[in-house]
Description:
By secondary structure, the chain is an alpha/beta fold. The chain has nine helices and six strands. The longest helix has 20 residues, at 69-88.
Amino acid sequence: MAVRTIFFDYDGTLHNGLKIYAPAFREAYAYLVENYYAEPREWTDKEISYWLGFAPMEMWNRFMPGIPEETKVTCSGIISSTMKALTEEGKAELYEGSVEVLAYLRRKGYHLIFISNCKSYYKEAHNRMFELDSYFEELIATEDYGFLPKNEIIRSIKGRFEGGHAIVGDRLQDMEAGRDNGMLTIGCSYGYGSAAELEGADIIIGDILELKNIL
Length: 215
């Protein structure tokens, strides 16, 4: 299959999201401790990284399903506001080589689509910081589609983009979205997913720069 359109996950694929997610997660957990919903404890970055890639409410429904719904919304808001502030302070970082690869793929004539399990403000803030729309034809935050799963969003829009299609990502949701839509799946082992999540990927890369040798 000759690939013409590539869907890219963002956090753990192009963006080292843990830099801004870990402090935001700790802020939200501190709120839970202060309000007697959780016991004090230290969280390692590795433990926190597991939760990167989930849609916000799915993360809270899995992480602490027993807390009140309004508390989940509050904690999600704490994470959002903290990440937004850190982004605006210039703390967000793309992986080394991300811009080089995106520019290379554009020069080669590929159609690039950004799709992330994130809120719209996050997509827009990162677009302003990194000029993502210089590379991507479309920027999709799953919030734009009511936080539908990626496989459903892609199914509804893929006909707008030249085939064949590929998806690049670091989590199970990305691989499932690709398989469900008959796409080439490229798993990023340097991201936040486990080896089991990428099992069955058509190709696995250990560095974003490897895409230049594949596509």
